[in-house]
Amino acid sequence: MDTPPVTRAASRIAAGLATLVAALSLASCGSSGDSGATASTGAGAQGRAGTNATRLAPMDLTGAPRIDQDPAGAAAGIARYWSGYQRPSGDVFDPIYKRGGIRYSEAEWANLAIRLAVATGDEQLARFGLGAADWVASHPGVHRTAPSSFEDADMAEVALNLRRLPPSAERDRVARRVSAWLAKYRPALLLDSRYHTNKSLVEAVAIVDMLRAGVPLPRADFWRRRAMGVIGRSMPQVARTYTTTTSLGATTVLSDPTKNPISYHALTLGYLARAVQSLGPQAPLESRRLLVHMARGLVFLTAPDGDSAQWGRSQAQAWSGALGAYGLRVAERYATARERGRFEQTARALLTRLQTSYHRGPYGLFYVPAFADGGPEKAYTEPRGVDVYANAVTYVALAVKALAWQLDVPGGGRPRAVGPLAPLDGAVKLGQGSNGETIVVRRPTLWFGLRTAGMLSGNHGYDLRYDFGLYAAEARDAGGTWVDIIRPRPQTDGSGVDSAGPVLITAGGLRGYPTAERATTDPSGRVTVSVAWVHGTTTLARGNVVYVPLATGVRMAVLAPPGTRMEVSIFARDPEITAAGVRDGRALAQLGPGARVKVDRKRYGSAYDRVQRRVRVTFPVGAPSWVTYRLAPS
User: Which of 24, 154, 458, 521 could form a disulfide with 107 if both were Cys (CB 3.0 to 4.6 A apart)?
Assistant: First the structure.
């Protein structure tokens, strides 16, 4: 998003310096924005906003509203807790990074706290939001030195919602400062009317809301045309490249062309929904259509257990599910009656996963599931599976803000009854372009997704999260529970070309990495990918990789060309090598004949697993090579 990435070594040095700087700044920070609010949870007070707290008692989630039943209620509880980390200056301290003032967290907390205060009349949330907004407004220089699309959008929404708070001298004072801050707006990205990345859309939303709030923008008509050009013309045009025809109709997967990391599809959907809601009757027809097309994309991308962000950067971050659920529910207004039920079903699955896999831990919300393994702090040690730009105070706020936005959909985001829906069984191709296709296969007891782009297509510095092949698979057990039978790929540092395979190895030791040239599917869900195995700029061989759905598993099969052999990597949390194959909890990878197995000493990490081990499987020269991923026998 807006936080620049740094190297891991620099990150460790910066973390140490940040701790020292935070300690010094905590001792000398001023008193503006002191809210004096207590941060309460279901079990009572945990701290006092406007203090120098660096570690509060863990949030007590006993009796807390469920995210999938009352998303705004859950958001309010988390926000009250985080108000205990607000410092006297109004900024919000990050208990993991050990510092405050992290861009654009204060604007997010201000936005969501004030929106929730408007809905609930909660004075604690109002004071929290006013203090955070006042802190942002006291730093007008950022428009010149480091403009942020997200910060601008949040502060524009703050300006709108401040009008809805009960009148008070403090509200009016902060409102004047916020308006003056917004009036100094300089574009972070919107230098033309073209859609470049999700930030183009976010900045367009910021302009729309600034104009709605009556902010005295210089050249207001000019900026309005720029914003509407992105929302109503450029973005729908770009989306056509990434739109396919499915059983639901035109279906789009779009975030940041050309890589389109899948987490950001949900983010882009959520902010497009925000644009459509803000514009109301003035929302362009093409924008409303695209909203529905992108909602269809998320329906297919979402696994049965509600997971939808398995590959690419920002893997499995909580805001993806929260923004996706909000976008789906806004899209329901423009969908057919049949689609409304499907969108609601998917939104509920996303929120249920947030409840079961994220709504826990010391800060009320883990922003990646790996934090459950030893706590958030350990997830920032090697092997690191969390993106270097991610932090708790910003990314928890982004997820909680999307939950608060559920107040703006019918029923306040509470689930509604959905009638029987026809199954979406079969294979579907999603997205196109230089990043290849995402292919999703669904059957009554199986779901899997695979990517056709290879690691030689310029994929984010050879990060394995962008790898070719199967990126996730789930099977339903006899009790109806969906179980992961493949672990999503780990984050890697891009020090060299890598792939989980199938990697072709020549007699001379050259390694050929798979890149798809064509993919076909059949009604059974079988996927055949025509592959070139490439070393550098040289194509070593061509062949087919076939993915065959089974009752509770999927088989990957490939025939090694004469004189070559194939290598496949299996990533597992706790691999157990047995005669049956590689077992990892309830998942089992069965191996073809003659396979040799070696567990790497190196440890990996993903947003799902704090530690993963890599099991390399090598098959005989010229032999058929296959791996069946399935549920392990009880």
Answer: 154
DSSP annotation of 621: T
Give residues with Cβ within 8 angstroms of 576, minimum separation 6: 582, 583, 584
Structure tokens that stand for 564 in this block = 């070559």
Q: Alpha-carbon Rg of the chain, whole angstroms?
A: 25
Hunting for tokens 């208990």 — which residue is that?
Answer: 95
| Inter-CA distances, 422 with 240, 341, 425, Å | 27, 11, 9
Which run of H or E residues covers position 192?
Answer: none
Sheet holding 482-486, edge to edge: 426-430, 438-443, 446-451, 469-476, 482-486
310-347 burial code (b ≥16 CB/10 A, e <16) = bbbbbbbbbbbbbbbbbbbbbbbbbbeeebbbbbbebb
pLDDT above 70 covers what percent of the chain?
88
- 518 three-state secondary structure: strand
DSSP 229-247: HIIIIIHHHHHGGGEEEET
Residue type at position 314: S
pTM for the full model?
A: 0.90
**Rounded (5°) CA angle 597-453-193:** 150
CA–centroid distance for 571 within its chain: 21
Question: What values do phi and psi take at 441, rounded to 5?
Answer: -120, 130
Residues 6+ apart with CB under 8 A from 508: none
**What is the C-alpha separation between 397 and 81, in angstroms, rounded?**
12
Instruction: Identify the helix (H) or strand (E) that includes residue 365.
Output: none
Residue 495: how many other CB atoms lie within 10 Å: 8
Using left for φ > 0, alpha for ψ between -120 and 50, and beta otherwise, residue 536 falls in left
Q: What is the predicted pLDDT for the residue at 283?
A: 97
CA distance 228 to 183: 19
In the predicted structure, residue 394 carries a pLDDT above the cut 50: yes
The three-class DSSP label of residue 270 is: helix
Interval 247-288: pLDDT, tens: 999 999 998 887 778 999 999 999 999 999 999 999 999 999
Predicted confidence at residue 39, as pLDDT, reads: 30
Greatest CA separation found in the chain?
81
Predicted confidence (pLDDT) at residue 30 exceeds the cutoff of 80: no
**Res. 460: pLDDT tops 80:** no
Amino acid occupying residue 461: G
The structure tokens listed for 53 are 């707290």
Count of Cβ atoms closer than 10 Å to residue 566 Cβ? 31
Q: Can you tell me which residue has the tokens 């098959």?
A: 619
Bridge partners for 434 per DSSP: none
Q: Are 531 and 515 in contact (CB under 8 A)?
A: yes
Interatomic CA distance for residues 610 and 626, integer angstroms: 28
Considering Cα of 608, then 570, then 509, then 527, what sign does the dihedral take? negative
* Separation CA 162–CA 509 (nearest Å): 66
C-alpha distances in Å from residue 13, one per residue of 8, 18, 540, 552: 9, 9, 42, 47
Residue 191 CB contacts under 8 Å (≥ 6 apart), including other chains:
none
Backbone angles phi, psi at 153, to 5 degrees: -65, -40
Q: What phi and psi, each to the nearest 5 degrees, are found at residue 220?
A: -60, -40
19's CB contacts (< 8 A; 6+ apart) are 98, 99
Selection from 393, 570, 358, 392 nearest residue 484 by Cα: 570
